[in-house]
Specification:
Helix content: over 70%
Number of strands: 0
Low-confidence stretches: none
Largest sheet: none
Order of helices and strands: HHHHHHHHHHHH
Structural class: mainly alpha
Distance between the termini: 19 Å
Strand content: under 5%
Number of helices: 12
Length: 293
C-alpha cells in the first residue's frame, strides 16, 4: 500500500472515530428534551440497520447466519453498551462519560488473555493500570459517585467484552455481516420497550436528532470497519482514543461542559497510556515479523 493511500485511510478512521461521539452527543441532546434512553437506543439500532443494509453486501445464503448464537452474544453486549452509555449521558458530561467508558480496552486486554489465551506483557499491563488510574480520577470513587458514572462504567465493561467477542468472531464471519446482525438483533430485542417509550410529541427537532444519533454512529462504525480491513489492527487501535478528544471538544461546544482539573488529568492519562500501549504492541509485532523474515 502506498503512503498516500495509507494516509487517506487514517483520515477515514479519524472521521469514523469522531462520528461515534457525535452520535452520542445527539443522544444526549435528546435526553435533555425528555426522550427516554431506551427509545434512543432502539431507534439508533433500527435506523442504523436500515442505513447500513444497502451497504452490507448481504446475500440470501447469509440470512440464516444473522441469528447465529455467537452473533447474538455480540448483539446483547453492543445493545447494552449503547443503552448504558445513553443513560450515563443523561446526567454526565460527555467527556467524563467517555473517560469512564474507556475502561473497556483494559477489560478487553485481560479478558482476551483469559478467554483467547492472548499474551500478557508486564510493560503493557503497567500502562493499562496507569490508564485505569486515569479512569479513577474521572470517576472519583467515594467522592460523590453518581448513577450516571455507574452506567458509563457498565457500558465500558460491555464494550470491553464486545472487543473480545470481535476477535473471537473474526474467524467465522465477515465484518459487515457482524455489524448488520448486531443492529438487527438489537433493534428487535429492544422493540417492545422502545415502542412503549416513543415520545408523545415528536417534532422535526427530535426527528433530526434521532437521525443524527443513528446515522453518525452507524456510519462511523462502517467507516472504521472498511478502513480496518485494509490496515493492521495495531495501526487502527490507537485511534480509538481520539474519541476522547472529540468527546471533550463536543462537550465544551454543545453543552459548555468543561472537565474539572482531576477529570482533565484523568482523560489525559487515559489517552496517553492507551496510545503508548498500542504503540508498544505494534513495535513488538514488527520486531517479531522482522525476526521471522
Amino acid at each position: 500500500m502506498n503512503s498516500e493511500k495509507k494516509h487517506l485511510l487514517l483520515v477515514m478512521i479519524l472521521l469514523g472515530m469522531s462520528l461515534i461521539p457525535v452520535g452520542d452527543s445527539a443522544g444526549k441532546l435528546l435526553t435533555e428534551v425528555g426522550v427516554s434512553p431506551v427509545f434512543i437506543a432502539w431507534s439508533r439500532l433500527l435506523v442504523g440497520f436500515l442505513f447500513i443494509l444497502p451497504f452490507s453486501g448481504l446475500v440470501r445464503s447469509e440470512l440464516k447466519l444473522l441469528y447465529d448464537w455467537r452473533l447474538l452474544i455480540r448483539a446483547v453486549l453492543f445493545s447494552s453498551a449503547i443503552f448504558c452509555m445513553l443513560s450515563a449521558l443523561k446526567t454526565e458530561p460527555i467527556a467524563n462519560a467517555f473517560g469512564i467508558f474507556f475502561i473497556g480496552p483494559i477489560v478487553a486486554y485481560f479478558l482476551a488473555a483469559a478467554v483467547l489465551k492472548e499474551r500478557i506483557t508486564v510493560l503493557r499491563s503497567l500502562l493499562l493500570f496507569i490508564g485505569f488510574g486515569g479512569v479513577l480520577l474521572v470517576v472519583k470513587p467515594g467522592f460523590g459517585i453518581t448513577t450516571g458514572m455507574l452506567f458509563a462504567l457498565v457500558a465500558g465493561v460491555c464494550y470491553g467484552c464486545m472487543l473480545v467477542a470481535n476477535r473471537w468472531l473474526a474467524g467465522f464471519f465477515r465484518p459487515r455481516l457482524i455489524l448488520i446482525s448486531t443492529l438487527l438483533a438489537g433493534s428487535i430485542a429492544l422493540a417492545p420497550a422502545g415502542i412503549n417509550a416513543i415520545p408523545q410529541a415528536i417534532d422535526s427537532h427530535i426527528i433530526w436528532l434521532v437521525l443524527m444519533s443513528s446515522i453518525a454512529s452507524a456510519l462511523g462504525n462502517l467507516i472504521i470497519i472498511e478502513a480496518g480491513r485494509r490496515l493492521d489492527a495495531n495501526i487502527v487501535a490507537p485511534f480509538v482514543y481520539s474519541q476522547l478528544v472529540a468527546a471533550a471538544v463536543l462537550g465544551v461546544v454543545l453543552f459548555n461542559d468543561w472537565p474539572d482539573t482531576y477529570s482533565l488529568l484523568g482523560l489525559a492519562i487515559i489517552f496517553i497510556s492507551g496510545v503508548l500501549s498500542f504503540v508498544l504492541s505494534n513495535r513488538k509485532t514488527k520486531i517479531k515479523q522482522a525476526l521471522s523474515n
